[in-house]
Design goal:
single chain, 131 residues, alpha/beta, OB fold (Dihydrolipoamide Acetyltransferase, E2P), 2 domains, five-stranded mixed β-barrel, 4 helices
Amino acid sequence: MSAKRSKLDFRTMLYILIGVIIAVAIIYMVLTPGESKRVYTPKEILTNKNLFVDKEVTVEGIYRSTYNAVGMPTTDPNPVDPYLITLDGSNIENFTTQVSDGTRYQFTGTLKWTSPLHTDVILVVDRVKLV
């Protein structure tokens, strides 16, 4: 009789262990943001262009209306930013009226090559979020 009971206890413990492993896996999946949810700076995108082209990315930075681009945050009133990502807001109605110069935004969209030599990129914006 005790032999049956120990097998039952082992099986019960195994079920509990499997349940705990599944619960931990679910919690990990829910709490860990995916790669597409990560927010990047223009510098991160431009220094690793090949990793992000043809993928949806979120870029946070300051909108520069002169260049229609997103750049790195700075306190300089006349910034010279080498890390500007040109924006294509054609997927958003009235894009230029929704954004204002010098304001911090998160732009989400697909990064595309703009030159046949694969040197310049453009972010085709699908969503804009004021930060």
